[in-house]
Design a protein that fits this description.
The protein is about 55% helix and about 15% strand. By secondary structure, the protein is α+β, with helices and mostly antiparallel strands.
């Protein structure tokens, strides 16, 4: 399993012509997003910065749902057929580069 740079990540706005810098704080890793359209560049940078937190939330939600599945005695086949479970698993795989 691939490991990403752990959060928290933050966004620093460099100005309309320069773009946005996403910084991982402790890990000294930065990504610069171009600002071809200022609002879009800012929104993209914010989404990228939120990615580690969003991944953690999706993984946590899937784990809690799995516990509920066991308590409710829902079969694995039925469970894997639920659209939200499919979406959570696909998002986790995509985020992990699997």
């Amino acid at each position: 399993m691939k490991k990403h740079t752990p959060g928290p990540w933050g966004v620093y706005h460099l100005g309309t012509s320069e773009g946005n810098k996403i910084n991982t704080f402790e890990h000294r890793f930065e990504i610069v997003t171009p600002n071809t359209v200022e609002a879009m560049g800012s929104a993209t940078a914010s989404l990228i910065a939120a990615a580690p937190d969003l991944l953690k939330c999706v993984e946590h939600a899937l784990n809690e749902l799995e516990q509920s599945r066991k308590e409710l005695k829902v079969s694995v086949a039925e469970w894997n057929g639920y659209e939200s479970v499919k979406m959570f698993k696909a998002a986790i795989k995509k985020a992990r580069g699997l």
